[in-house]
Amino acid sequence: MGIQEVGDVTLVRHAYVRPSVQRGGIGTALLGHVTALAKRPVLIGTWAAATWAVRFYERNGFTLVSPAEKTRLLQAYWDIPARQVETSVVLADARAVREIVRDVATR
Length: 107
Description:
Oligomer: single chain
Shape: globular
Structural class: alpha+beta
Mean pLDDT: 92
Distance between the termini: 34 Å
Largest sheet: 5 strands, mixed
Number of strands: 5
Number of helices: 5
């Protein structure tokens, strides 16, 4: 698991735990560590079909953003094909959610 600063946010990247040791707290500990390092709002992109991953991030305080915000964020902070944008979701930490709400309010 790692982080990447892109513009005014931090992305959590490549967050995987070997299946044989999942559900032992390793993912939660790693996520806590990398988010503590982040000095900017944190976003996580993952496949919409990876419902187990979405639930994991939600259990750890992340919020699924709306489909419109997802598209905007994926296009702004990731370099991925349109098909991947369609099949992905974005989750945001509390700082990122506040920024999104503020941005929407000022549009």
